[in-house]
Amino acid sequence: MLGWVIVGHDYYAQDMLDAIERRFGPQPQCCAVNYWKGLSTNMLSRMMCDALYHCDSGDGVVFLTDKTGAAPYRTAALMSHQHPHCEVISGVTLPLLFAMRMHRETLSSEAFRERIVEQGGTGITSLWHQQQKNPPFVLLHQY
């Protein structure tokens, strides 16, 4: 089962997780990390790292963030490069998470990324999709 780490500003993450659990009951391998104004990115990184290890069963983890480019998204992006099968999705909404909840058990992290971006419309994107728009710099010659 894919782990979910919901991360966002103020009460965003906890409110999302609470709404999912009210409707569907306790969610295994699912954590919320709230990013408060004034919280250092170092502390945010520690909180997200704890959540990552708490939610990872070896099948992969998906970071679900509120805003592309904001501190939670950037921190998740850095963490995803160090862990296999780790995806970063931004712009998630509660109805979309309701619809995608069942896919945690059947899809790989990569397939989940494709499905959620496809179903989410224009407001949803992933780190992978953003990187395809701006591929990393490649040095063509050795000096």
What does this structure look like?
One of its GO terms (cellular component) is cytoplasm. Keywords: Cytoplasm, Kinase, Phosphotransferase system, Sugar transport, Transferase, Transport. It is found in: Cytoplasm. This is PTS sugar transporter subunit IIA. InterPro entries: Bacterial_PTS_sugar_comp, PTS_EIIA_man-typ, PTS_EIIA_man-typ_sf, PTS_IIA_man. By secondary structure, this protein is of the alpha/beta class. It has a single domain, classed as 3-Layer(aba) Sandwich (Rossmann fold), CATH 3.40.50.510. The chain has helices at 12-24, 41-55, 71-80, 94-100, 109-120, 127-133, and strands spanning 3-9, 30-35, 61-65, 86-90, 125-126. Strands 2-1-3-4-5 form a 5-stranded mixed sheet, sandwiched between helices. Helix 1 (12-24) links the parallel strand 1 (3-9) and strand 2. Helix 2 (41-55) crosses helix 3. It starts with a strand and ends in a 10-residue tail after the last helix. The relative contact order is 0.17. The model has no long low-confidence stretch (mean pLDDT 91).
Which descriptors would you attach to this protein?
143 residues, Rossmann fold, 5-stranded mixed beta sheet, 45% helix, globular, PTS_EIIA_man-typ_sf, transferase, PTS sugar transporter subunit IIA
